[in-house]
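Q: I'm a student working through a structural biology exercise. My instructor gave each of us a protein and asked us to get a predicted structure, then write a short paragraph describing it. Mine is Nicotinamide-nucleotide amidase/nicotinamide-nucleotide amidase. I'm not confident about reading structure output yet, so if you can add a plain explanation after the tokens, that would really help. Here is the sequence I was given:
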Amino acid sequence: MCEINLELLNDLSLRIKENKLTLALAESMSAGYFSAIWSMQVYSGDFFKGSIIAFANEVKEDILKVDKALIKEFSAESIPVTEAMAKGLQYLIPSAIQLAITGLAYGCDDPQERAKVGDVFISIGFQGKQTSRSFSYGDDLAADIFIQAFNSSLVLLADVLAASD
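A: Happy to help. First, here is the predicted structure for Nicotinamide-nucleotide amidase/nicotinamide-nucleotide amidase. I'll explain a few features afterward.
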């Protein structure tokens, strides 16, 4: 089983706090997993503002204001939808950093689905820019996909913050 990169998580938590930044999340596939981990950080009360769990497309559309046509064109598990989730999040939970995730950790019966099990999409909004990446972890156990995705989000966030220095 995979393990969370605690060293990077702790470093990022401290960096976010010291730079007086704030973080908000919009989660689909991970359904609150990322938020739970961030909330357990020692300094989370100083920077973690909250999250929206948008597992169902209706939540993406109605709460995060993701265009239904975008979901139909690209599918809910895609870079364009993940970016739209991050953009919608900034109006609901104003923060310096918006992190959104979609993907498939296990199979589904949706005939519109284009992603494969293990495909994950992460988008980070920071300083007016979106940085997005797709990852493919194969058809590992869902728990391993969650952990690998969380670690990938940490690396992507570290890269985004480093680029702003």
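A: Here are two points you could use in your paragraph. Helices lie at 6-18, 33-39, 44-47, 57-62, 68-74, 79-92, 142-163. DSSP finds seven helices and five strands in the chain. It's a good idea to check both against the output above yourself.
Q: Great, thank you!
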